[in-house]
């Protein structure tokens, strides 16, 4: 059972079925093997014994036919009065003898092609020798003597050679036939032994299969019955009120799952009954406490009625105070409205100021861009003047070189020298004019740079003015929002004061109602005390019922 407990009932039943199937398959295979062996034995007996037996009979028949033909040939002796009665000529006998010999040789070859035992092979070899002796020393010499007309010689050969060889041949064939019978008997005995062996094996396997199936069935039934008895005993104990009993079943099958579920149910019921018992005790204690609390509640209700009257007087005074607060809140709201209007006008003025300063800042920024463009143009003009100065200097240098070449040329170059002097004069004047223009442009650039600085300063100051005005606007906006908040708060205060006045009146009415309820509560407290006593009695009865269970 230790090993079986590791498997479920389903697995055990499946193992029993598989084991039975295996035994049945083994029995079927053994039966098939036995049938195959029987078929092989029958095939062996047929092919190796019955067929060879027929071949032996055929060999004997052919040899006997040749012996008869030899005797027939001796009947052709002219001295024999019966010679005239022969229907066939002597020459027709020899071909028939040769056909028998050829057929005999074919039968012997077929016989040799079958399975032969050692003893059988030795006998066949002797049969073959005797056949040669019969044919070579007996049969053919007889026909040779007959054909020569030597019938007495033929008769002596027949008597001395052919007949003894025939007897030996027949004896060997009889030995061979007897050997076939003996071997067939051995084959039969072997087949019988194989059959008995297969039968005993089948019977043994059948008995083993029945025993294994019976053991597995007994194990499965025993495990189920044992688990069922355990569950029955535990259920009976629970029915008698014992919640401490537990099903002890340690296997791993389906009954173990049922036992575990039963134990969980018992544990759950044990916990529930224990909780009910604990709750019952708490209920009894709570009932006693409720009785004490009910008495204290009655005393508190009487004190509450006295203090409720005092609260009513205080609420009347508070109602008058709330009305004064409402009037003051209305006055503050009017003042806040006036401040709100002034702040709105200030916000409009600041908005116009911001707009004017922004326009000024944009104009300053436009002028700054124009002056910067002028500065860039003057810089470009300075670059052009640099090019012109370089050209003038190059021209002056070329005129000087021309004057030198004209002086070298003498009288022929005098006119060219005059032109060179004029060119040098123009180049000098160009350089002088370029210097004057350069000085003027530098002054213009200096003025433009100063103007740009002034414009940037004005633009920055305009931006700061816009920022300050914006900050003033934000401050004024904060003031406006604060005034609005104050106005809203005054309105809320006035509304709250009115609501408080209404609430005060409502409280007065509620206090009267509370006083009436207090009287009713006093009556209810007395009823609660009576109910608490009944609850204590019910708790005692419930404890008595729970006490019937063993937890």
TrEMBL record:
Residues 222-274 form the HAMP domain. It comes from the Bacteria. One of its GO terms (biological process) is chemotaxis. The keyword Electron transport does not apply. SUPFAM superfamilies: Methyl-accepting chemotaxis protein (MCP) signaling domain. Residues 279-515 form the Methyl-accepting transducer domain. It is a multi-pass membrane protein. The chain crosses the membrane at residues 199-221. InterPro entries: Chemotax_Me-accpt_rcpt, HAMP_dom, HlyB_4HB_MCP, MCPsignal_dom. The keyword Membrane applies. One of its GO terms (cellular component) is membrane. Keywords: Membrane, Transducer, Transmembrane, Transmembrane helix. GO terms for molecular function: transmembrane signaling receptor activity. It is found in: Membrane. Its main location: membrane. PANTHER family: METHYL-ACCEPTING CHEMOTAXIS PROTEIN CTPL (PTHR32089:SF119), METHYL-ACCEPTING CHEMOTAXIS PROTEIN MCPB (PTHR32089). Belongs to the methyl-accepting chemotaxis (MCP) protein family. This is Methyl-accepting chemotaxis protein. It comes from Halopseudomonas yangmingensis.
């Amino acid at each position: 059972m230790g090993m079986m407990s590791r498997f479920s009932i389903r697995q055990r039943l499946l193992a029993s079925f598989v084991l039975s199937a295996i035994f049945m398959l083994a029995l079927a295979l053994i039966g098939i093997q036995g049938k195959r062996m029987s078929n092989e034995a029958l095939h062996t007996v047929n092919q190796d014994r019955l067929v060879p037996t027929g071949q032996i009979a055929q060999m004997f028949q052919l040899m006997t036919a040749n012996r008869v033909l030899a005797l027939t040939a001796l009947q052709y002796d002219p001295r024999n009065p019966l010679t005239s009665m022969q229907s066939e000529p002597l020459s027709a006998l020899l071909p028939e003898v040769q056909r028998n010999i050829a057929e005999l040789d074919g039968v012997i070859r077929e016989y040799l092609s079958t399975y032969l035992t050692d003893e059988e092979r030795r006998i066949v070899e002797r049969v073959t020798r005797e056949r040669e002796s019969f044919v070579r020393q007996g049969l053919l010499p007889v026909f040779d003597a007959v054909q020569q007309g030597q019938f007495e010689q033929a008769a002596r050969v027949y008597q001395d050679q052919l007949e003894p060889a025939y007897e030996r041949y027949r004896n060997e064939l009889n030995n061979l036939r007897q050997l076939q019978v003996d071997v067939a008997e051995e084959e039969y005995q072997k087949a019988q032994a194989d059959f008995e062996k297969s039968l005993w094996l089948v019977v043994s396997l059948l008995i083993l299969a029945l025993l294994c199936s019976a053991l597995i069935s007994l194990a499965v039934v025993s495990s189920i019955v044992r688990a069922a008895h355990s569950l029955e005993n535990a259920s009976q104990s629970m029915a008698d009120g014992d919640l401490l009993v537990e099903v002890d079943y340690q296997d791993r099958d389906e009954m173990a799952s049922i036992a575990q579920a039963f134990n969980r149910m018992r544990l759950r019921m044990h916990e529930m009954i224990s909780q009910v018992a604990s709750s019952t005790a708490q209920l009894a204690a709570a009932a006693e406490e409720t009785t004490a609390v009910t008495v204290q509640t009655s005393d508190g209700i009487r004190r509450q009625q006295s203090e409720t009257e005092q609260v009513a007087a205080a609420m009347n005074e508070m109602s008058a105070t709330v009305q004064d607060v409402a009037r003051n809140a209305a006055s503050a709201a009017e003042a806040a409205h006036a401040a709100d209007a002034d702040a709105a006008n200030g916000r409009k003025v600041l908005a116009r100021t911001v707009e004017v300063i922004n326009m000024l800042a944009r104009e300053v920024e436009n002028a700054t861009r124009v002056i910067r463009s002028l500065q860039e143009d003057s810089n470009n003009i300075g670059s052009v003047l640099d090019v012109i100065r370089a050209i003038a200097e190059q021209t002056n240098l070329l005129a000087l070189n021309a004057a030198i070449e004209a002086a070298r040329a003498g009288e022929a170059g005098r006119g060219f020298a005059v032109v060179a002097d004029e060119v040098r004069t123009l180049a000098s004047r160009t350089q002088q004019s370029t210097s004057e223009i350069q000085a003027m442009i530098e002054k213009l650039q200096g003025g433009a740079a100063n103007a740009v600085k002034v414009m940037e300063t004005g633009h920055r100051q305009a931006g700061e003015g816009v920022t300050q005005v914006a900050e003033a606007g934000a401050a004024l906006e904060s003031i406006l929002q604060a005034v609005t908040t104050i106005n809203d708060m005054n309105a809320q205060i006035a509304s709250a004061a009115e609501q408080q006045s209404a609430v005060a009146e409502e409280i007065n009415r509620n206090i009267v109602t509370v006083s009436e309820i207090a009287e009713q509560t006093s009556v209810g407290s007395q009823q609660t005390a009576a109910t608490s006593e009944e609850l204590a009695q019910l708790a005692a009865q419930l404890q008595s019922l729970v006490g019937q269970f063993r937890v």
